[in-house]
Write a structure and sequence with these properties.
This protein is mostly helical and about 475 residues long. Helix content is about 80%, strand content about 0%. It has 17 helices and two strands. The radius of gyration is 21 Å and the shape is globular.
Length: about 475
């Protein structure tokens, strides 16, 4: 039985595991900044907005950064299956720590590292299902990406209600239960995968593997110790920022020096396109921070006498993704090769930029009092339209250009470009301490929209490729 056939049989199991992992991720994302900014007498950490946003950005960036070593472990040491199991156990442990009266940042580190293990391994297995054609990859990743939004829709509603209406730590515990359900489903469904993900694609020598694992454990212990001792999210964010920007570019240059990329323009096109998508993720990552705080502080959330939890607005985004995904699927089919990846990414940046320009208008209206929730819903709609382009097509592009034996690492590498955007957004949000919200949102949205307008032409001139 072929790997692809086995993969097709296991698609349901992969979907369910990713569904629960996304439940954990989006549940935490919906409540983290709100929890950090809540006063201590109400069970929170009493941080100011910029500091809480820095913590959130640090967590997201570490999740992305961890994907590269996580992908290496899946490719060279563990195989995709064991990488998923290991990552799920780390995520569960992290949420248990978050729900317990122990150092909070340690739990975030475990969740981030677990996410970095799971995501590239899962994406690699999905890539194996899709076959070799570019359109097959895009279609499979789009289907998978659309399907998991159901979990992202439910997570803020369940976790947010438990956290805001009952107890914050109960929300963290609910996310742990969700990931545990996904792990059980994955273990039960292993027989459906055949040989898919059973062994490393390009196994490393045992002595090297032991050395790397020892280094990983020591490094993890050092990171956790530094976080507990220093406890400075701004310093951590700065370190992650340098790492997130330099690591993907340095890794690509290393692969080129090894001769794994005979086609220089193709590598240049990939780098340029993924760098541009960093700007979209810079905006998207602020859904749980800047937009969450705006929902809490500046939005009229009372409906028929019931105050809607601020975290529930995070459910609007995946709902819109589910609604617009079929529209984009039809668009891709009708456009065919006439619509290049460069054009698609440029359109996504335009949508993302427009969302923050709309936020600027909402911020102006908020100067006179709480605004209608329709403003935030419109912003989430625009971001959802951009994400359904950037997310699955970025993964498909990474899978297409990856050298043999490097699939999981390249799928993780696409996330590294997202990490650069996340860190940049976390740093820029500090400007809100000196700039009005309307100016901040307007500058961010306008800058990204301009890049979206010029990206198609720049891509063709700079890298000499049609962008596919």
């Amino acid at each position: 039985m072929s790997t692809r056939t086995n993969g097709r049989r296991g698609f349901g199991s992969l979907f369910v595991v990713d569904l629960w992992e996304r439940f954990s991720f989006y549940g935490l994302a919906a409540i983290l900044v709100l929890y950090l900014t809540t006063s201590a007498d109400r069970g929170g950490q009493a941080l100011d907005g910029p500091t809480a946003t820095a913590v959130f950005a640090s967590y997201l960036a570490l999740s992305f950064v961890a994907g590269l070593p996580g992908g290496w472990l899946a490719d060279r040491v563990l195989g995709a299956r064991r990488a998923v199991v290991t990552g799920a156990c780390l995520v569960i442990a992290g949420h248990v720590v978050l729900a317990a009266p122990v150092p909070f940042y340690v739990g975030l580190v475990f969740v981030a590292l677990g996410t970095g293990m799971i995501k590239p391994a899962m994406a690699g297995m999905v890539a194996a299902i899709s076959g070799g054609g570019a359109h097959d990859r895009e279609a499979t990743f789009s289907l998978f990406y659309m399907s998991i939004q159901a979990s992202a829709l439910v997570a803020p509603l369940v976790v947010g209600a438990l956290a805001e209406k009952v107890a914050w730590h109960l929300g963290f515990a609910a996310a742990a239960v969700g990931m545990a359900c996904g792990l059980v489903q994955f273990l039960v469904g292993l027989r459906r995968f055949g040989d898919l993900g059973r062994t490393p694609v390009h196994p490393v020598e045992p002595a090297v593997a032991r050395k790397v694992l020892r280094t990983t454990v020591i490094s993890l212990a050092v990171v956790v110790t530094v976080l507990v001792v220093i406890g400075n999210p701004q310093a951590v964010l700065g370190l992650l920022g340098i790492t997130a920007v330099l690591l993907p570019l340095g890794y690509l240059l290393t692969l080129q020096r090894k001769g794994l990329f005979a086609n220089g323009p193709r590598l240049g096109a990939f780098t340029a396109l993924m760098s541009a998508t960093s700007l979209f993720w810079m905006l998207f990552a602020q859904s749980g921070s800047a937009l969450g705080l705006f929902a809490q502080q500046h939005t009229n959330r009372v409906v028929a006498g019931f105050e809607v939890p601020a975290s529930w607005f995070q459910a609007a985004h995946p709902l819109f993704v589910l609604l617009v995904a079929p529209v984009f699927a039809v668009l891709w089919v009708r456009a065919g090769d006439r619509l290049t990846v460069r054009a698609k990414f440029g359109g996504a940046l335009l949508l993302g930029g427009a969302s923050f320009v709309l936020m600027a208008v909402a911020a102006v209206a908020a100067d006179t009092g709480a605004v209608s929730p329709l403003w935030l819903l419109g912003v989430h709609l625009l971001l959802a339209c951009g994400e359904i382009v950037v997310g699955p097509i970025g993964l498909a592009l990474a899978a297409a250009v990856a050298p043999d034996g490097y699939e999981n690492r390249f799928l993780a590498l696409s996330g590294m470009f997202g990490a650069a955007g996340v860190v940049l957004g976390g740093q820029l949000y500090r400007l809100t301490s000196v700039l009005p919200l309307s100016v901040y949102f307007g500058l961010m949205g306008g800058a990204v929209a301009v890049v979206g307008l010029v990206l198609p032409a720049l891509g063709k001139l700079a890298v000499g490729t049609n962008g596919r």
